[in-house]
Design a protein that fits this description.
The protein is mainly β. It has 2 domains: 35 residues, no CATH class; 92 residues, no CATH class. It has 1 helix and 13 strands. Strands 4, 6, 7, 9, 10, 11 and 12 form a 7-stranded mixed beta sheet that branches. Strand 11 and strand 12 form a beta hairpin. It starts with a strand and ends with a strand.
Length: 134
Amino acid sequence: MPSSQTPNYQLNQWSRDDRILMEDFNADNAKIDAAIAEKVSIVTGSYKGDSQESRFIDLGFTPQAVLLFKDNGATYDNSSYCGGLALPDRPVRRESYPILSVVEGGFMVYNKFVSNDKIVTNSKTYTYHYIAFK
């Protein structure tokens, strides 16, 4: 039997005098497998804007978060909103206008003029890069 366990995942730890059992190893492997399955994975990608007022970017899964940048790495550039960090219930907005939002299966981007500012997360002038957290 193990004499102690690790603090984070309670994996078995043995001292020199402990009896080692196959069941202890199998239990540890099951804990490790479950912990890895729960970890967030990251998907990266890019798209070329098409200047439609709104556009769905299909990821094939609903992300926990999306981080979007214009091709120069900016999220705001020359009075233009061109990215940011969106969560499922926390879209990136300029007042009441969406800039970037998480939706089922992916995320939405937009192309719109608002007062003196521009929302350009889908301008055909740019390529955009994203990190989506699965």
